[in-house]
Write a structure and sequence with these properties.
The complex is a heterodimer of chains A (about 110) and B (about 180). By secondary structure, chain A is α+β, with helices and mostly antiparallel strands. In chain A, about 55% of the residues lie in helices and about 15% in strands. Chain A has one domain: Arc Repressor Mutant, subunit A (Orthogonal Bundle). The two termini of chain A are about 20 Å apart. In chain B, helix 2 crosses helix 5. The chains are: A alpha+beta (about 110), B mainly alpha (about 180).
């Protein structure tokens, strides 16, 4: 999977993972890798700036949680984030359907 | 919350927090060009992430060193992570800072060069002029003015280079503390 194409869709992917419920960075990245069956394997440290950016845009909210010996930042989808995700999903479905119609799958 | 539970499963393995991870976090702290509050948050998240990744590696049967190295490799190079956290504003500020420091250094070097060249030329003129010969007719600027100019260039150049060196050390210490 080309990294640039993945980066272009990272916001949608992160919002989609968080639609299942609040999670911290490691869990989000692990879920992304597992749900994509290993296809979406980003430089893990570079996902955090995207989470921060989505939070700054009001699409995510986050708070510290305490785990033994350290702090953990847990992210959750906001109402605005859920609305943005719905819009992005609809756009993605239209785009994917268009691509599928033109490119198709090999027989 | 399933994702959180999955991530928590391995967080008991704190024993995996070995030297390489600590060194990575130290280097990341020194490389980040973010505000102190952001830096703390970035480092706390990186530490939590690396703990989790090391614990997962240990659970998968890796040694502590292997688990730490795998965790760091997956997280990304210090350079890549620090760059990813740069905002357009911090990029501009960092570039302006580098430019100011370069100008500071060049100014000091130029002043010291003027001083050195002037000193060499003075020595050459003094040593090559015939002893007891007639003095040159009313030179402009006078030798006294030239001496003052050279001394001023030398002192100013020295002060500029010393202050540059101190400023650089302070900046490096500040980055290390964040």
């Amino acid at each position: 999977m080309e990294r640039e194409r993945l980066k272009g869709n990272l916001d949608l992917l992160l919002l989609s993972v968080l639609a299942a419920g609040p999670a911290h960075g490691y869990a989000i990245i692990t879920a992304l890798r597992e749900r994509s069956e290993g296809a979406f394997d980003l430089g893990e440290g570079t996902v955090y700036p995207a989470l921060h950016r989505l939070e700054a845009a009001g699409l995510l909210a986050s708070d510290w949680a305490q785990v033994p010996g350290r702090k953990r930042r847990v992210y959750a989808l906001t109402r605005k984030g859920a609305a943005a995700l719905a819009g992005e999903r609809a756009q993605w479905r239209r785009f994917a359907a268009g691509m599928q119609a033109v490119v198709g799958w090999p027989a | 919350m399933a994702a959180v539970r999955r991530g928590d499963a391995g967080s008991g393995g704190v024993a995996g927090m070995t030297g390489p991870v600590e060194e990575y976090l130290r280097l990341l702290r020194a490389s980040l060009r973010t505000r102190p509050q952001e830096t703390s948050r970035i480092l706390a998240e990186a530490e939590d992430h690396l703990h989790e990744a090391v614990a997962a590696g240990l659970a998968a049967g890796l040694t502590e060193t292997e688990a730490a190295e795998a965790a760091i490799s997956s997280f990304g190079s210090v350079r890549a992570v620090a760059r990813a956290h740069q905002t357009p504003r911090s990029r501009v500020l960092a570039a302006l800072g580098h430019l100011a420091m370069a100008i500071w250094f060049l100014a000091g070097t130029a002043l010291m060069s003027v001083f050195a060249v002037g000193l060499v030329m003075t020595v050459v003129i003094v040593t090559t002029s015939p002893p007891g010969g007639p003095p040159p007719p009313d030179p402009d600027p006078s030798p006294g003015q030239v001496a003052w100019l050279l001394a001023a260039c030398g002192l100013l150049g020295l002060a500029t280079l010393v202050s540059y060196s101190r400023a650089r050390r302070v900046l490096q210490r500040g980055r290390g503390r964040r």
